[in-house]
Amino acid sequence: MSINLKRIARKLFSLFVQPIELFKAKILGHTGIFEGEAFLKGGDVRAVASIYYNQKLIIRTRTPFYLRLKPGRYTVQVMYMSYIVEKDVEIKEGESVRKEFKFPGGVLECKAYEGEREVKATVEVINAESGEIVAKRLTPFIIHLEVGKYTLRAIYTSKGC
User: Fold this and answer.
1) Which of the listed CATH numbers 3.40.640.10, 3.40.50.150, 2.40.50.140, 2.60.40.10 matches domain 5-103?
2) Statement: residue 149 has pLDDT above 80
């Protein structure tokens, strides 16, 4: 059985620190709590979060984050690799808001060449672990895939592009 220290730290944080911060926010007033976390296929990832108020960047941080913000409507853009997930968030005085940013697996772009000339090919995308054909496409193509290892098998045609 493996111990996930991040998960334990998050749990301790939510049990002890978060209630104290919420209490301070209610006593001090004029702020709300905003928590954000990014996920890729069920696991948490460290992504860059940009928080905008009135279309102006006010904070750039990494996930997971825990911020005290003034009440208002914010736009949050979280970027992992080249993916961006954007959400609008309303912060209310003395309240806590939690958002999860979930990213898709990945993108495969495929083209076939004979020398420098682009040619057509029928390509099978095969899951390397299961051996299952997950897609069969004619080049050029772009496809979204789950995280994992894949093998490409191409059958070329004699016609050029």
Assistant:
1) 2.60.40.10
2) yes
